[in-house]
Amino acid sequence: MSGFQRGLAALIMTAVAANASAADLSSQLKAVRDVSREGQGNEAAAAAVRSLSAASANDLTQILAGFEGASPLAANYLRNVVESVADRHLAAKKPLPTKQLEAFVLDRSNDPRARRLAFEVLAKVDSSASDRLIPKMLLDPSPEFRRDAVQRLVAEAESLGEDSADKAKQIYRKALSGATDSDLVKKISKSLKELGDEVDLVSHFGFLTDWRIVGPFDNREFIGFDIAYAPEKELDFAAKLKAKDGEVAWGEITTSDEFGIVDVAKSVAPHKGAVMYLATSYEAAANRNVEFRFGTPNAWKLWVNGEFLFGRDEYHRGMAIDQYRVPAKLKAGKNVILLKLCQNEQTDDWAQRYQIQIRVCDPSGVAVLPVKSKSQTTSDARPQKRQPQRLTAQLEGASE
Amino acid sequence: MTNLKNSSARRIVPLIAAVVSATCLTGADWLQFRGNDVSGVSALSEIPTTWSDSVNVSWKVDLPGRGASGAIVIGDQVVVTASSGFRQDRLHVLSFDRASGKRNWERQFWATGRTMTHPKMSVATPTPASDGKRIFAFYSSNDVVCLDLDGNLQWLRGLTHDFPNASNSLGMSSSPIVIGDTLIVQVENDAESFATGLDTSNGKARWKKVRPKKANWTSPTLWQNSDSDAVALLQSSAGIEAVNPGTGETLWKFGDGASTIPSSVVTVDSLLIPSNGLTALRLGEPLDDEKGSPEVLWNDRKLGPGTSSPIVVDGKVFVVNRAGVLQAADVNTGSLLWRLRLKGPFSATPVAAGKHLIFFNEKGDAQVVDISGAEGEIVGENTVGETILSTPAIADNEMFVRSDGHLWKIAE
Fold first, then answer.
1. Do A280 and A348 fall into the same domain?
2. Could you give all domains of chain B from N- to C-terminal order, each with its CATH number?
3. In this predicted model, what pLDDT tens digit does every residue of A278-314 receive, in sequence order?
4. Cβ-based contacts of B113 with chain A (< 8 Å)
5. CA distance to partner chain B, nearest, from residue A200 (Å)
6. Which of B65, B277, B140 is nearest to A317 (CA)?
7. Which chain B residue has its CA at the smallest distance from A76's CA?
8. Looking at CA atoms only, how far is residue A45 from chain B in angstroms?
9. Is the Cα torsion angle A259, A265, A269, A274 positive or negative in sign?
10. Residues A260 and A370 occupy one common structural domain
């Protein structure tokens, strides 16, 4: 065999080995990604993790690519693999593929969790990575990247003297454009207010503020959560409905609270042992996935366009922005949102709140606003009184 | 105080560990909340009664984020959990070298369940557990992570991922325990309550039981004597449910209610429940025919604990009430022996090392009480200067305690 032939054979062997290795990597990634509910696939995933953890540093970006579409459970298995591979190379003082990692971080089409993990690995060996990359992350799909970028801007604005108010205002405004975490939004909003600038927090977060409301239906001894009262069967805003204390009709409730809290106890009545239904419409520009994010100390159920999405039977254990996250699909045009909000019969002072705060956003927390401007949307979304129209026939039989 | 049954022949020994695990007596490890036998006692250990930054503190290391979970000790490593991030949705498991405090490894995960908690709590409130070969980290998000002792992932479960209404907006604090090859986990709340026994080898449920729909922060405990198999004792607002840890079969129930914060403690032949004050049940003997539950030995409304769980040492039960008063009572009769006012408030459960009880209050002040005499006596007062909500771990003559930001090893 000539030298050329030996070289060619070696090249072919290397290529075959690389293909075999790539195929192996791919099958192991699949084993991890197949993990599912109640521990199904755990053994196969664990075996794959053991094997993948012996991978070379050059395989890191391929493993990171395996995050695409992975379930939260699978993502955690994969995270462990990446940490193990990186730690092993760091302990042995072997190099990591920094250029490939950085390219992976910068490619926003990659999974946000994987990009963040790649950045954290990169930052262990590249102390300049944060200063170089984070300032460009203000509008990143990853909430963690965005938070870091916002925090840098806030720190920059805070460092300015009183004679730089205009510049500070400009930087705060820029920071606000990327801020979704409530602590940072509140901080920026407060600073802007002190500088004479008001922030429309309702629009910033995408809170839903205008609703029709009907009730109270009976929830004494918690019976109401499981009972499908009339609004769950048919949404007819003109109908008189038999309720807890007699016949009731749909009314309206609109909140002017800057954080979009719809306070039933204050705006309607401090009902106890009660179920109230709230409904509104939302005009979407196109079919798209969104999240409904809730805060409420009351039990609740949510339907969108007649489809039951989630319910929670918990009372007075606290309330916070984005306490609950419910993925949903909106269709282009009008969408009908129906909420069931339940109050128990506790008499303690701390158990009197009857309220909800709800917003529509993308999975990273950025508000998804209706297609029309706020004022137009408000008048359109607010159901007209005494208008005998059925907004959705689809809600027919929409109980869980 | 009502003495319902006083059996002088009853044998109360300081450590049920004598029949559960020899390692408890030697005190080499501290594998779960309140130690290997869930007693909180390391009988042969001696811990310094005083310490400061420069004296009797072997090391102090930084921790990320927050955590109210206790440390556990497995051979030559100390393991703690933490949670970080704006939403506390980054979950950490950290291993430190027991001798030097040097970090062995750290692993992180993303929470798959809800992470909202009361501001005082954190997602890393439950203490992890170990069977000596594996680490089981559990969080308020109801994620369960199993690692080997080198930090390699063995399996994980997302119990809220699987059962989406299983969560508590105030946070969950129940610490899992290992009995044999089953990890006992209580996920109890107002919406979707259950307890489950997970196979320690793969995380799959050996059993899953519906539990009372009411928020519950107590931890399971175990009881075993030389004549019986281990029993898992699950506490809730309804009372106690004793189950076979391997199958989940209910063995008996005590239905007179119980606290949802401090947890029960066992002796070799009785169970002390924070119920209507404190209630003692006789264990290891035939059940009461009428009630189908163990006989009530005594009950005392004045012995009700605050947040900290009771602890039993040398035939005495020690209870700290909401006012911060330590009460010692005869474990056989419930008769009050003495009282001692401590500086509270307390979230951490006290632990015992030899003749001393160690109490950490929420301000980070530690009070060491000598319980060997006719009255309790404070023999040491120290501070770590940071909020302490976690229960310390004791292994051999070393104590490990953590705040949000630090882990200390206290030893001579």
1. yes
2. 2-410 (2.140.10.10)
3. 999 999 999 999 999 999 999 999 999 999 999 999 9
4. none
5. 23
6. B140
7. B109
8. 8
9. positive
10. yes
